[in-house]
Structure formats: structure tokens, C-alpha cells
Write a structure and sequence with these properties.
Strand content: under 5%
Structural class: mainly alpha
Number of domains: 1
Number of strands: 0
Order of helices and strands: HHH
Radius of gyration: 24 Å
Largest sheet: none
């Protein structure tokens, strides 16, 4: 029994670095996707006339609605 506990403590003490890498990449992706979604959403009060940054893709929601209505 003590051999199993010793084995568990020696192998479980190292935390795999790829777990950390997955979490870091996921966090960066979530922040990036969330930023794009925020810039494409309705602007908060005081930001109505602010220009969209060049690296944020535009969304043509009104044109899509017109095409759906015509079909």
C-alpha cells in the first residue's frame, strides 16, 4: 500500500506543461474572438461615432437581411 502511495506522489507532482499551453492558447483565442464580437456589436454610449480598427472585419448585416428578403 505504501508503495502505491509513494508512486502516486512521485508521478503526480509534475504538472504537464501542455495542459498549461492549452489553457493559455484557449484564453488568447477567447479574448481575440470576444474582442471581435465586441467591436461588431452595438457601440456603448459615447462610442457611436468611433471608427472600427482596420484589423477588425466588418459585418454586413443589413445587406444580408435584404438578400434574405428578396429570396
Amino acid at each position: 500500500m505504501s508503495l502505491l502511495m509513494e508512486l502516486a506522489t512521485t508521478t503526480g507532482s509534475k504538472f504537464p506543461t501542455y495542459f498549461v499551453a492549452v489553457y493559455v492558447v484557449g484564453f488568447i483565442a477567447a479574448v481575440g474572438i470576444g474582442s471581435i464580437a465586441w467591436y461588431n456589436s452595438k457601440r456603448p454610449a459615447g462610442w457611436e461615432n468611433a471608427e472600427r480598427p482596420d484589423f477588425i472585419p466588418g459585418m454586413n448585416v443589413e445587406e444580408d437581411k435584404k438578400q434574405d428578403d428578396q429570396a
